[in-house]
Amino acid sequence: MGTNNEKKGRGIVKFLFFIAIICLVSGALLTYLTSPKYIINKALTTVTTNLMGIYENKKETGLTENFKIEGTLRMDLKSDYYAGLSSMNQEYASIAKSLNNLSNTTTEYTYIHDKKNEKRFINVNTKTNDKSILNIKQLIDNATEYYFIEGITNTYINNGNNNYFESLTTNTTYENIDYILEILPEIITNNLTEDTITTSYNNTQKIVTLTLKENDLLKLENNILKDLKNDDRANTILTAYNPNFSKTKITKKDVKNIKPIKVNIYLDKIFPQFNKIEIINEDNSFIYSIEQGKEQVIIKNEDESITFTINRNKKMTTITITNQNNEELGDISITKTDTNTDIILHFSEEDTNYSLGYNNQITNLHKNKSYDSNTSISIKITNKDTTMLDGIITLEQKVSNDTKITEDISTSTLASTLEKSIDNLIEEKIQTLQTTLLGDETA
């Protein structure tokens, strides 16, 4: 009998001990889940993931490191308004001529990226009315950069060392951009100091507030940069975009006169469920909220407020745009598949209507070998019954795994032998292009 009671006693003790452990673990977990830094991290992650996901469309082609792109860019732009007034106003005549020049301009380009052999080739050739107005080539071979600028020299110009491929130990793909966005919230929250965070409550919500002044911003941003540089993968990715990333530093001048930035994060008072984040700087604010099944982005300034209400389903995302008076200004629809993206925007302001259409299609996809990519952007702006601008921009691309480069650099000239630097020569060519297309010069 005593033995049975002892067993029961030990059983009760074990049970109570087990319950105590659960309570301790649950308490620790609840404390962590409701800690201000965790809440800030979760809010930043949620906003980034949700808003980036609206447009992001990852097409797996297998051609991200070694590939060749051959593309053609064309425009067809017209305006009844500027054409009709061109005979009465020189400024309008110039705009009408610019639109005509752009419509008669074709840009052909080639981009070859051979990571395996550390070679890269870019050629941009712009013609208007079949006359070449810009033809520039850049070649990276054996860690040396070469330029060819039509009309300057008859051979390539050796511009010295270029460490593009040294920094490109991993390429700048969607996965790498995603990695940066994934680690940033935690890096940010890890570098927040307790004196910048406060917690308050209203009737139904808990509010975590982050306040950043000039010195806070200076310290926080430099610590974020430090952590990104210390993360091998992040450092490699960011150096691929900016070769001078390792030297990047925020100075007092960069944050001077920036008014305090306040971030308010709202969540359920009882359960740590994120509802809203509000970023305020003086009279400007950005609000992202998910409340009662409604997802919204609100952008405010001293004079007005615009609200984007987001509705998602499997096939399409629609966004309704309204003003501070809840008057509908326009809408956006986004449709995505593995090989197609459609975006349509309608927007009205007073008597002016804006329509923008974007479509990108990938066809003839042979993974790791080749595919075709066709992009079109349509633009229409009307004021009452007058067409201010109507046009379409098309971009046709053929992408393949053919990375053969046949450029001859055996007779290249050293840049030091030229009277002007490469940057100045390219700048002059671009200015000529702008002058020609803007109608100041007969093409």
The gist of it:
This protein has 443 residues and is of the alpha+beta class. It has helices at 2-33, 36-55, 80-85, 90-103, 164-167, 174-190, 214-230, 232-241, 252-255, 422-437, and strands at residues 66-78, 105-114, 119-128, 131-141, 144-149, 157-161, 197-201, 205-212, 261-268, 274-281, 284-291, 294-300, 305-312, 316-323, 328-336, 340-349, 352-366, 370-383, 386-400, 413-414. The protein has a 20-stranded mixed β-sheet.
Could you explain the architecture of this structure?
This protein has 443 residues and is an alpha+beta fold. 32% of the residues lie in helices and 41% in strands. It has helices at residues 2-33, 36-55, 80-85, 90-103, 164-167, 174-190, 214-230, 232-241, 252-255, 422-437; strands spanning 66-78, 105-114, 119-128, 131-141, 144-149, 157-161, 197-201, 205-212, 261-268, 274-281, 284-291, 294-300, 305-312, 316-323, 328-336, 340-349, 352-366, 370-383, 386-400, 413-414. The protein has a 20-stranded mixed sheet. Helix 2 (36-55) runs antiparallel to helix 6. The longest helix is centred in the N-terminal third of the chain and has 32 residues, at 2-33. Residues 7-34 have low confidence and may be disordered.
